[in-house]
Design brief:
The protein is an alpha+beta fold. The chain is about 35% helix and about 20% strand. Strands 13-12-16-17-19-18 form a six-stranded mixed sheet. Helix 13 crosses helix 14. The chain starts with 6 loop residues before the first helix and ends with a strand.
């Protein structure tokens, strides 16, 4: 049976995080079965891992071309593994694939989190006297669990990630082979070539979408979420609801778009299509004496995509509440019920630090990554922050409660798209009053109108470094960037970013030729 992932992307670690891959030059059952045990225990709930035999490691990646295995070696490995699998307690068998890479045959072991964990394996699986240990993954190594980790591992016995659990209220007939085919085509999987000859049950099993013996087999929740045409039959209100408030939060006027339903990956795509059709707008600003115009968006698409994918990925599908998208004149809110794992601190999240210890839905992340809907785990929130910054937008806001019952991502609109009266007023105050007040200390004589203008018009205002640059331009009309950079030890790239933001806010402009021109406050 063919391996289910795009082999070239997989072996180059573009589909799976490197700490979930282990490369082995040859057959070493002692170390390999320690790793099988560790991946099967899936201590961090990251979805297990893969062991590639016949592939050398070079700087954390596969060395190309691969060294490969002889046919006799492959037969020997498969025979020995049958016996060694029985030595893991309780019994565990990884899925084994023989694939061709760089003209050589290799073995891929797919080791997913086991349903009967925790597992123990012998320290030396070929020794006559065997000493058993619980193994876990620590970074990219398989190690013996210490006392605390061993206790935690035992407590995790029934904590299989939700999307990897068998659903006993459904049957294998509820899985759509057509939706699986569409996914395999999108992920460029080799399995597509043999689909017509493969029985449905064999296909479902090859993707680890089912659980139980053949005579009593159930689909896993991941199969019903992604490969059933109506997941709400099994997970009520597992949909996206979309509401627009054209006059703001205080107004009773609102617009409801049709609910977005169906397989969750298609929900994401349809919601993104809604954003493109109803929300996203671009402005092109010509900068004097510069050939390339400045292009900005009211909201950066990649930030929206990450926020939406994260909401679908991390939603608690046992909570009967939909994901909500709320569109206001000055912001977007994306609300996910289920909240963050308690190991993630909200203060760290707002700093762009994500250190989750547990993932509610590890399989969704794997399947989403195969079709390009998400990147590595833990990168979503930092990406949202960086994309907002690149678009010169205010920083995103992340909100949750003490009980972690919900999680909200707020994306404020770029200030260039705010209503012109308030924005212009705020811009004028910044240009003519704020700098006279020693870097904008608002409590020294600026009135409430300024505060309202800054909050409602520019939203994020200027930080101290930006204000310093603004003041230098105000006090030195016609000054050039290289003068500011040289005298104040500020990189040109940073200054260029500040200037673009000033131009967007209509508080600074460039005048004169490229050689002799400079910047002026409006």
């Amino acid at each position: 049976m063919s391996f289910h992932l795009n082999l070239e992307k997989f072996i180059n670690s573009r589909l799976i995080e490197s700490d979930r891959l282990e490369f082995k030059r040859g057959w070493n059952p002692i170390s390999i079965f320690k790793s099988i045990c560790a991946f099967a225990n899936d201590f961090e709930n990251i979805g297990g891992g893969y062991i590639l035999i016949g592939v050398e490691e070079e700087n954390g990646a596969a060395k190309r071309p691969v060294i490969g295995l002889e046919k006799g070696q492959i037969d020997k490995i498969q025979r020995e593994m049958i016996g060694f699998n029985n030595l893991i307690k309780p019994y565990y068998a990884a899925k084994l694939y023989v694939e061709e890479v760089d003209g050589q045959n290799i073995i891929i072991l797919w080791v997913f989190g086991g349903n009967s964990r925790p597992y123990e394996a012998p320290e030396n699986i070929i020794a006559k006297e065997k000493k058993y240990h619980y193994y876990i993954r620590r970074y990219s190594s398989s190690v013996i669990a210490n006392k605390n980790e061993r206790e935690e591992l035992l407590n995790m016995a029934n904590q299989i990630p939700f999307d990897d659990r068998a659903n006993t209220y459904a049957g294998v007939n509820d899985i759509s082979s057509l939706l699986i085919r569409e996914h395999l085509i999108a992920s460029k999987s080799k399995l597509v070539d043999g689909l017509e000859k493969m029985e449905s049950i064999a296909l479902f099993s090859s993707l680890n979408l089912t659980s139980g013996p053949k005579e009593l087999m159930f689909p896993k929740n991941i199969a019903l979420l992604m490969f059933n045409h109506n997941p709400e039959d099994f997970f009520p209100r597992s949909r996206i609801e979309w509401v627009e408030f054209p006059r703001g939060e205080g107004s009773p006027e609102f617009i409801e778009r049709p609910n977005i339903t169906g397989p969750i990956q298609l929900q994401v795509k349809q919601a993104l299509s809604y954003f493109k059709s109803y929300v996203l707008k671009e402005k092109v600003i010509k900068i004097q004496d510069q050939a390339e115009a400045l292009r900005i968006w009211n909201y950066p698409f990649l930030a929206i995509e990450e926020a939406l994918v994260n909401a679908v990925y991390h939603k608690n599908y046992q909570v009967r509440e939909p994901i909500e998208v709320r569109v206001f004149p000055n912001k977007i809110e994306i609300i996910n019920y289920g909240g963050l794992d308690r190991s993630v601190k909200i203060d760290d999240l707002n700093k762009g630090i994500v250190r989750a210890r547990r993932y509610r839905n590890c399989r969704i992340g794997d399947f989403f990554k195969e079709i390009g809907l998400c990147e590595s785990k833990g990168t979503g929130m930092p990406t949202i922050k960086s994309e907002m910054k690149k678009n010169m937008s205010p920083a995103p806001i992340f909100e949750t409660d003490e009980d972690r019952t919900y999680f909200v991502v707020v994306l404020p609109i770029n200030s260039a798209f705010q209503s012109s009266i308030v924005a212009d007023r705020a811009a004028r105050y910044i240009g003519y009053s704020l700098l006279d007040n020693e870097f904008g200390l608002l409590n020294d004589g600026l009135n409430d109108g300024l505060n309202d203008g800054l909050n409602d018009g520019l939203n994020d205002g200027l930080n101290e470094k930006q204000l310093k640059v603004f003041r230098l331009i105000k006090e030195n009309p016609g000054i050039q960037l290289n003068e500011i950079s040289k005298n104040n030890n500020i990189p040109i790239d940073t200054l260029d970013r500040y200037i673009k933001m000033f131009v967007v806010k209509k508080i600074v402009e460039r005048r004169g030729s490229k050689k002799t021109g400079g910047y002026y406050v409006l």
